[in-house]
Amino acid sequence: MLPLVAIVGRPNVGKSTLFNRLVGKKLALVDDTPGVTRDRRSGDAKLGDLRFTIMDTAGLEDADPESLAGRMRSQTEAALAECDAILFVIDARVGMTPLDGHFADIVRRSKPPVILVANKAEGKVGMAGAYESFELGLGDPVPISAEHGEGMADLYSALREVFEAAGAAEIAGDDDDLGLRPEDIAITGVPVDEEGNTIGDDPIRPLRITVVGRPNAGKSTLINRLVGEERLLTGPEAGITRDSISVDWVWRGREIKIFDTAGMRRKARVQEKLEKLSVADGIRAVKFAEVVVVLLDATIPFEKQDLQIADLVVREGRALVIGLNKWDLIEDRTAKLKELREEADRLLPQARGVQLVTLSGLVGQGLDRLMDACVKAYDLWNTRVSTGRLNRWMSALIEHHPPPAVSGRRLKLRYMTQAKTRPPHFVIFSTRPDAVPESYLRYMVNGLRDSFEMPGVPIRLHVKKGG
Ligand code: GDP
Ligand code: GDP
Fold first, then answer.
1. Cα–ligand 2 centroid distance for 222 (angstroms)
2. SS3 253
3. Distance 146 CA to ligand 1 centre (A)
4. Domain named EngA-type G: which ranges (predicted)?
């Protein structure tokens, strides 16, 4: 039995288009009840190495339960209950409509995990409406273009995660013995070289950056400075105004979307929907960003709250950059930077080597270095290491420092591969996964970070049974 995935959303968001893309051919309407033009239809879908049955639920309408549409709706709700995952589709260009909210309520009530899919996200207009979708409480939207086949790698990752969490990893039907092949992920959209390393990345979206930090660290000053400068500001996108949520601009040819948490707070206040978000606000911003700048006041650095925020960023798996703001107030800069470097690595070992950028938002110094660091952090976060290189690396590491013997028997690590990027996520197969000590895994993570040059990257490493 293949896993069952349902596509849900209001009319016109692109459900049929997505259905057709996943099924890989134009499929005539099947499963039609006479008199009902579009009920449910299903087909065999394929995405990378994932095989599943996909069901288009066009016809899920809000209506009187006694009416035909109403009965259809409860029928569809019943169908949803049996799914393994729901793709809840919205139109990234239009943003949230009341009807989206209504459909969101239905899927939120349903049991299966929901993947929020922001369709029509191709090109520049891209994700204009997607931030608002955070109000739905359905997590980080996956931007795609069903029509142009973009973003399929991200959709793959999201689905894979859901299937794996449900213990359905063997869904990878005709896959190789380990069920994980980076090449399969790659063919869904991310260009790779012969070794399976990424070249470039998914081109559809701008780099999403958020600046977070304690009150008075200088976030507003910094963002105003960044955006106020002559930086080929592309202007607000449709539906987003400069001082509400995010600002888009092009920095050295790269599209950037920077989230203004202060702006988010203002907007929340206006809407009175997201109340008291001083903390939640920052957390949402972190979840939505790819790169997070934790801004510190260099005159009072690494307070408890700063460390908590940085730790959250790492736990959420985001690319981290630390901005040392108010550097204009520091006198012995060389000594101070050395001291802060040591403190960072001691207090944040989970992000060893994280980039520290000295700057002054007030004076306007260090802004280019900050942007450089963000782009670099993003690239590292997207690192993909080929299976060949990983296994050569692992053999050498084991030779140099083998895992400890457990109850007299040598522990064998058989094979290693990278399951995901953003952040890099590695999997090792061993006959006794539970026996691999935590300290050895830490040693391996640090080794990966050094050998494949991923300073500051929140690396994930898991051991699975296999081999
Ligand atoms: P459904 O009612 O949700 O099944 O939506 P359809 O699949 O019928 O699509 C509605 C409209 O959106 C059609 O005109 C599609 O061509 C268009 N559409 C679907 N996907 C995309 C996309 O990725 N980008 C753009 N620009 N248009 C799309
Ligand atoms: P936010 O609460 O993090 O948004 O912080 P603000 O941007 O409102 O800044 C808090 C205070 O720090 C204000 O008085 C700013 O003028 C000051 N400030 C911000 N950046 C700098 C800086 O780079 N150098 C100095 N000396 N002061 C700064």
1. 8
2. coil
3. 8
4. 3-167, 207-382
